[in-house]
Write a structure and sequence with these properties.
This protein is of the alpha/beta class. The chain has three domains: 2-94 and 194-284, 3-Layer(aba) Sandwich (Rossmann fold), CATH 3.40.50.300; 111-185, Arc Repressor Mutant, subunit A (Orthogonal Bundle), CATH 1.10.10.160; 286-328, no CATH class. The protein is built from 15 helices and ten strands. The longest helix has 19 residues, at 166-184. The radius of gyration is 22 Å and the shape is globular.
Length: 328
């Protein structure tokens, strides 16, 4: 198969891995995008998977676009039936199609509020409070706490039940008020897209069944940057159905996690084998960007990490032969 040509041993093993839960631990510059896109091609060409049954989740629109561009020469017109997009974009699709009559008063033409609109609602919620926040919480603090709760799939009721002090309780009550204002306006914020999609799928078997029949194979790029709500969504979408095994292909590297400020949890990728006990794990250790001295220096910095098992990378032969006079 031409699309498998020129892959190194580890890349080849990842692309042709058996269908099931698969984690590809891809070091920097190791060709993860190539592996991810060729995995899709392999599902279609070797396993005869209908392109329409494949869902590829990314963290940026740019990554989704690049994936489609790489696949077009291989899949041809079939590419039109492939679903690729960010977590939030895919959740919008699910909600637009299924939310009406399922979750409160929301209709399929709900609005998605921008940051400014969220701030206005948060300020209304603060102004409506019968008492001042014990810690003088402002709009940004409130929105940050609400976002963190939603990333953990915590409702206002759950947040209130776990409150440890008066300020936590105040935040939970403002969260409830804020959420009520959104619902009254048939609106959602950015974090709601994933939280509501998860609720819709977990609370309505007919919706989950329809979505799982549509997307039977789930692939995730930059898995190290998932937050708990995204992880829960992926786990739900890829659940085995009948005799059909879980088909989940995740690519990432915990050392490259950059979205902690957006509630990402890098331990999710390190617990992949605990979560999916039959998982196949493949490491991509050949780096195609840097020379060995650079890789060795990087490893010397991270090798003592206790939270994330470090992976030592090796420069490919071409990188090793770069003129030593080059200053970097």
């Amino acid at each position: 198969m031409d699309y498998l040509a020129n892959l190194n041993e580890d890349q080849y093993a990842a692309v042709v891995a058996p269908i099931g839960p698969v984690l590809v631990k891809a070091g920097a510059g190791s060709g993860k995008t190539r592996v991810l896109t060729l995995r899709i091609a392999h599902l279609v060409n070797h396993h005869k998977v209908d392109v329409g049954h494949i869902l590829a989740l990314t963290f940026t629109n740019k990554a989704a676009k690049e994936m489609r561009q790489r696949l077009k020469p291989i899949l041809g017109s079939k590419i039109q039936r492939l679903t690729t997009g960010t977590f939030h974009a895919i959740c919008v699709k699910i909600l637009r199609q299924h939310i009406e009559g399922k979750l409160g008063h929301y209709t399929r033409n709900f609005s998605i509020y921008s940051g400014d609109e969220q701030e206005q609602l948060a300020q209304q919620s603060i102004d409506a409070a019968p008492e001042v926040s014990p810690e003088a919480t402002d709009v940004n603090d409130l929105l940050r706490r609400i976002s963190r709760a939603k990333s953990r799939l915590q409702t206002p009721k759950m947040l209130l039940a776990t409150a440890e002090n008066s300020n936590d309780s105040w935040i939970a009550l403002r969260y409830r008020h804020y959420q009520g204002l959104l619902s009254e306006s048939n609106a959602v914020d950015f974090d709601d897209l994933i939280q509501l999609a998860y609720r819709l799928l977990s609370e309505h078997e007919d919706v989950l069944d329809a979505v799982q029949k549509q997307w039977r194979h789930v692939l995730v790029d930059e898995y190290q940057d998932t937050d708990p709500s995204q992880f829960s969504l992926v786990r739900l979408l890829s659940e085995p159905v009948g005799a059909r095994p879980r088909s989940l292909f995740a690519v990432g590297d915990a050392m490259q996690s950059i979205y902690g400020f957006r509630n990402a949890d890098h331990t999710i990728i390190t617990r992949f084998q605990e979560t999916f006990t039959q998982a196949t794990v493949i490491e991509l250790k050949t780096n195609y960007r840097s020379r060995q001295p650079i890789l060795d220096a990087a490893y010397a910095v991270i090798r003592h990490s206790k939270s994330v098992p470090p992976m030592q990378l090796n420069a490919n032969n071409q990188a090793r032969q770069i003129d030593k006079s080059v200053i970097f």
